[in-house]
Amino acid sequence: MDLRSTTQSILEIEADAVVVGIVEGQPLTGAAAALDDAIGGAISSLIESDEIRGNACELTAILAPQGIAAKQVLVVGFGKPESINASSAFKAGSAAAKRLATRTRNNLVFALSDVLGDELIEAAVCGSLVGSSSQSLYQSDPKMSEPKAVTWTNVGDDVLSAARAISDGVLITRRLVNEPPNMIYPVSFAEAAEEAVKNRDIEIEIWDKEKLQSESCGSLLGVAQGSVKEPRLVILKYNGGEPTQKPIALVGKGVTFDSGGLSLKPSEGMKTMKCDMAGAATALGAIQAIADLKLPINVIALCGLVENMPSASAFRLGDVLTAKNGKTIEVLNTDAEGRLVLADTLCVANEMGAERIIDLATLTGACVVALGLDVVGLMTNDQKWCDEVLSAAATSGELAWQLPMFSEFNDKIKSGVADIRNIGEGRWGGAITAAKFLEEFVGDTPWVHIDIAGPSFLDSPKAWCDGGGTGTMVRTLVEVARQSAAN
To answer: Is 482 a catalytic residue?
Structure first.
C-alpha cells in the first residue's frame, strides 16, 4: 500500500474514512475537535450520551457525515491519559486499520498526531500498516483487505519511512508464521529468506544438510532426522557498522512443524504447531527492518530450521546427541526439540564472533503458565544486556518479564549418561531449565533468551490483530539495535 503524509485540512481530504483519536475523560482536541465542529457535534453528542467513552481500542463509526469530504469518521479511544504509551498507540492504529479492512478501501486518513505527540506517532503509524493483515492467506474470499493508500496528517516523511520499515519486518514475520506447514518448511523458509534480502544490504548464507554434517551440528541434525524435509541453517548478515565492530546476533528457533516426534503431541496440541518457527521468522523480520532503517550497526541473524516428525528414522528417547561445541546431550523427550536446534545455532553465532546474543523461541508451555499469553519471558547470563533488552521492550510497548537463572537450576539438567539432558527433573521451572540448557552453548558471550511461546500466536482475533501470528518482538529487536547503535 502507498504511505503518504499531508498537511491538508482533514475536513477537505476525500477519503473512505478519516480516523481521529480521543482520550478517556478528556475534552476533544485537535483533529477530533475540528471534525466534531464540522459534523454538527456528533462526536461530543455521542460522548455525552455515553456511547463513546474513549476506552483503549474502542471504535465508533460515524457514517456519511455532512460537512466533510470523507465518507465516514472512525473514532478510536486511547484510554486514560496515563495509559497512553507505545503499546496503546500501536494497538489503536492497528485496531482502526483492522476495522476498516473489512471493506475494500482506496484511501484511509489517520489524524492522531495531536493525541500522541512525536514520541509515539511512529508506533501508531506502524500499527496502521499491519492492522489490515490477515491470516486468511488461502481463502478464496478473504475477510480482510488492505487499503490502497494510508495518509497521515502532520507526520514527517522520516517517521513514515521508519514506520514502513518496521511494519514490513512485522508483516513478513506474521506471514511466515501464518503459512501452513506444507508451504513453509526448512527449504522453503530459506527460499523466502533469499527473496526477502533481494535488493537489501543483507548477505545470506544457507547451510544444507551436508554442510551441517561437516560442521558437526549433531544436535540440530538429530531433531531433523525423522522428517523427509531436509534441515537448513540460514545465516543473514547486515554490515551497517564499522568493519571491526563485532555483531549482535539474533538467533531464532525454526521448527517449521512440531509433531513432538516420538513423544507425540495430542491432536489439540499439534493444531498450531506451524507457529513453532516464530523465533526464526522474528529474527528474519527484525534484520530486514534494521537493514531498511540503515542503522549504523552490524547484526547477524541465524535461523535454525527443521521439521520434527515421528518415523522409523526419528531420534529416540535415550539417544545421545553431540552438539557443535562437543557437549553431549541425553534425549529424554523428543518434544523438547527446540532447545536442541538452538544449541547448534547458538554455537555458530558464537563462532562468528557475536559480541552479544539474543535468541527467540516458542520454547516452553511453562513460560505461558508463568506469564500468560501476552508476556514474553527473558532469561540471561548478563544482567546489563538483559536490562538493555527490557528497556527496548518498554520503549516499544511490548510486554516482557525477567525470570531468574539461579545456579540451583543447573543441577536439574545434569545427566548420568551424557554431559546434560534435554529436559529438567520433573515439570517444575520448565522455562528456566530450558534456558539453563541453552546457556551451555553461549560460553561467556552476553546472552538473552526470549521465550515468545505465549504472545507469538493468537488462537482467536483481538481488536488490534487478526488470529494467527502477531510479529511480537520485531519492534523490540529493532529498538535494541537503535539503542546499541546510539551508544
So the answer is: no
With CA atoms as reference, report the closest residue to 476 among 445, 442, 450: 450
pLDDT the model gives residue 117: 86
265 is catalytic: yes
CA distance 205 to 358: 20
84 and 21 in a common domain: yes
Annotated catalytic residue, options 53, 71, 265, 462: 265
- Structural domain of 354: 167-486
Name 5's bridge partners: 152
What pLDDT, in 10s, does the model give residues 150-190?
Answer: 999 999 999 999 999 999 999 999 999 999 999 999 999 99
Asked if 290 and 201 sit in the same domain, the reply is: yes
* 325-371 per-position pLDDT tens digit: 999 999 999 999 999 999 999 999 999 999 999 999 999 999 999 99
Domain match, 271 and 244 both: yes
CATH of residue 67's domain is 3.40.220.10
Residue 272, judged by CB atoms within 10 A of its CB (0-12, 13-18, 19+), counts as middle
Residues near 387 by Cβ (< 8 Å), separated by ≥ 6? none
Q: Which of 253, 339, 412, 482 is catalytic?
A: 339
105 and 196 share one domain: no
Domain boundary among 116, 149, 182: 149
Has this prediction a pTM greater than 0.70?
A: yes
Is 224 a member of any domain?
yes
The three grid cell numbers given for residue 351, joined into one nine-digit string: 563462532
Q: Which of 302, 231, 306, 216 is nearest to 261 (CA)?
A: 306
Q: Which residue has the cell 540503515?
A: 294
